[in-house]
Design a protein that fits this description.
10 helices, 8 strands, alpha+beta, single chain
């Protein structure tokens, strides 16, 4: 693919955007807000998106997916977010877990999980973050040890999304290298009903259908078939899931930023306090224009990262995905702030539904990796500056 074609979307991508945007409008922010108020899940939207093939658009066609890549899945999440009804578990279930299993899983794991993930009838959560390690894979204390042909998995995880609705969790643990004795990351599929596996909800200020949980794994016994991929290639397999996670988080932020900006622009076009709509005043118009520019720039990097990942350039995708996630997170925070300020008091009302985004937008700055750690990554890996840790 030449350089020019990576900057313009092909017709099939534009068609996908149009179709997903239409689905998003049929549900919209009112549906999403009602689900949050009732403490429910976006089951109707999830099911319809699955029937239409959107949830598995990145998964292999032989297992019921669309045969596309992270590019197509990011389009789905961005457009749903721009309509005000994002599906956070798209980041986790098909993007991280589906990608890892599709690339590294056994034939049995692929047959067991991929058709359901593609159709939306099965969901998976992803467990990496720990209380004392965050997402630093080198400091994880969840360990897996062999017991005959089985594995015993022990540890704790925090801020794990959607465990209550997931059929299983893809857990990152560490095993001992028989040659060096050092601990290395490995991935295991842990069923929700596995003995020794429990979870507790973490109260959050973020208004979202998807809840956050702490996991406890107390000598969870797993068969040998629960190990995903090669025991000696765990780090490679882990980052094969983390790069899509960053791309999808960027798409999530872009959708949120677009939704907030669109609400503010509509308001600024029609709200009159003096003779002209308030959008005629530069103090109102310029911040919205800056947000539009920031969102468009972040979109370019997001789809560059997705393109690199889908092309098999894991190293290039890692750098671009981190920068995309940073740029989109900043763009979303700024867009929400400018949108709320444009509406004034109305920006804080339930009727307009923007105030809840003030907290939600910050999620893209801190999860799944903070903007400071992304700056560390760029300074070390891209600029070649020495590490401070």
């Amino acid at each position: 693919m030449n350089a020019v074609s990576t900057l313009t979307e092909p017709p099939e991508h534009r068609a996908l955007r149009t179709a997903v945007a239409a689905l998003g409008r049929r549900y919209g922010r009112a549906y999403f807000a009602s689900v949050v108020r009732e403490g429910a899940q976006t089951d109707e939207l999830w099911a319809e998106a699955g029937k239409l093939g959107y949830l598995g658009v990145n998964l292999p066609a032989e297992y019921g997916g669309g045969g596309g890549g992270i590019t197509e899945l990011a389009i789905v999440l961005e457009e749903l977010g721009a309509a005000g009804c994002p599906l956070l578990l798209l980041v986790v279930s098909p993007a991280i877990c589906g990608t890892v299993i599709a690339r590294f899983g056994t034939d049995e794991q692929k047959r067991t999980w991929l058709p359901g993930l593609a159709a939306g009838t099965l969901k998976m959560a992803f467990g990496i973050t720990e209380p004392d390690a965050g997402s630093n894979s080198h400091r994880l204390t969840t360990t897996a040890r062999r017991d005959g042909d089985d594995w015993l998995l022990t540890g704790r995880k925090v801020f794990i999304s959607g465990v209550d609705t997931a059929d299983a969790t893809l857990v990152v643990g560490r095993t001992e290298d028989s040659r060096t004795g050092r601990l290395k990351p490995c991935l295991f599929v842990v069923g929700r009903d596995a003995p020794g596996f429990s979870y507790r909800r973490i109260p959050m200020e973020v208004s979202a259908p998807e809840k956050q949980f702490e996991l406890v794994l107390d000598d969870v016994r797993l068969p040998s078939g629960a190990l995903v991929g090669d025991e000696d290639a765990g780090l490679l397999q882990l980052f094969a899931g983390l790069n899509p996670e960053r791309v999808m988080t960027a798409a999530f932020a872009l959708g949120m930023g677009r939704y907030a900006l669109n609400r503010a622009v509509d308001y600024a076009r029609t709200r009159r306090v003096w003779d002209e709509p308030i959008g005629a005043h530069q103090a109102v118009a310029h911040p919205l224009a800056r947000s539009h520019i920031e969102i468009e720039l972040a979109r370019l990097m997001t789809y560059r990262a997705a393109h690199l990942y889908d092309a098999g350039d894991d190293a290039g995708a890692g750098e671009a995905a981190n920068m995309a996630k940073y740029a989109a997170g900043e763009a979303a925070v700024h867009a929400v702030d400018h949108a709320v300020h444009t509406l004034g008091g109305n920006g804080l009302t339930t009727e307009y539904g923007l105030a809840s985004l003030i907290t939600a937008a910050r999620v893209a700055r801190v999860a799944p990796v903070s903007r400071e750690m992304i700056l560390n990554y760029v300074s070390h890996h891209t600029l070649g500056l020495p590490k401070s840790y």
